Amino acid sequence: MTHVPVMAQEVAQYLVWEKEGIYVDATVGEGGHTLYLLKSFPRVRVIGIDRDNEILRRACKNLARYRRVTLRWGNFSELRNILYKEGIKKVAGVLLDLGFSTFHIEESGKGFSFQKDEFLDMRYDRKESLTAYDIVNTFSAGELEDLFYTFGEEKKARRIARAIVEARKKDKISTTQQLREIIERTIKRSSKIHPATLVFQALRIAVNRELDHLSKILTEIPELLNPGGRAVIIAYHSLEDRIVKKTFRNLKSQGIWTIHTPKPIRPAKEEIATNPRSRSAKLRAGGKI
Fold this sequence. Notes:
alpha/beta
């Protein structure tokens, strides 16, 4: 298995309170967190969900020896319907790891990384119609600026948007390398973060409607949990984390939710040293009263 689950021990600590309960790993990926839970708690059952069929096949292989896991294709925002089809009304806990895996960066060929020269796709689910190519080549300068600023918090969004529109007059922008070069010509590197990082983040979020799906599932989770049930969310950038933080506070104000992590849990220095991609992770946990 190439994927290393982020804060696996902390996830188990905050998520598993019922040692014989049903838990949902709603972003199962290659199965790292689910494998840790199955090994650590011999009586729990896990429902694993992912919207990417390719990575779900990897999870099937990695978890094949366990009968206590059920894997299903789908978006986590459809959790209610997925559980209904399994004959399950309530669960003991739900885990969302909002990061994208090593597989998506290194092997998917979908253009998630500006370090590779691939077609600008960025769809987790190829059944979706909108691609990063469509956005880059059809959105107006104003629309691109708004997207980069809103979903990437890119301060130089206007300059980048105008440069993209100017470049595509000569030829379509089809690959990650083309887009990277446009951004590099437009923005000088002034920090450790590559100038294309936030633009690629914004495109990925827009293509997959990540924040919309996150907002939907967070408001529905309390209805899907048993009393005492828990939710653990791992976010990797401020946009996601703000939504989680705000939703947890709103649920608490309604008297139906308790917050188990007043401040987000961060990976230990040792974990960051062995898995650098975990460095931006923030874990928040809450539970149904």
